[in-house]
């Protein structure tokens, strides 16, 4: 049975650290177009959950919904460019600005390890 993970997002306001990471990430050039920047990222069942910024999609009022919660499609590939991780979901490329405290980075490292195990089995 899968482990149950409870996640709480108390506000959409960013800490100084999160803001500085997103600003640093936005100034950099990448090898792919970035669909959105994700802060407080955590990986759950091969998907990334977090707070997104600069998402290209628009809401019903034709505005971008910066600071909303996103759950991406299944992560197909992950790689690092500079200091940031990029996640390819097939529908877009998401840049991880920061991981959720208390397990976000650990969940990502578990995803990377599971992918390495699958590659070695092939």
Could you characterize what this model shows?
There is one protein chain. This protein is of the alpha+beta class. The chain has one domain (16-121). The protein is built from two helices and six strands; from the N terminus they run αββββββα. It has a six-stranded mixed β-sheet with strand order 3-2-1-6-5-4. Strand 5 and strand 6 (93-96) form a beta hairpin. The longest helix has 18 residues, at 104-121. It starts with 15 loop residues before the first helix and ends with a helix.
Give the helices and strands, then pairings:
Layout: H1 16-27, E1 36-44, E2 47-53, E3 68-71, E4 77-81, E5 84-88, E6 93-96, H2 104-121
Order of helices and strands: HEEEEEEH
Q: What proportion strand?
A: 25-35%
How many strands? 6
State the end-to-end CA separation. Answer: 25 Å
The largest sheet has its strands arranged as 3-2-1-6-5-4
Number of helices: 2
Shape summary: globular
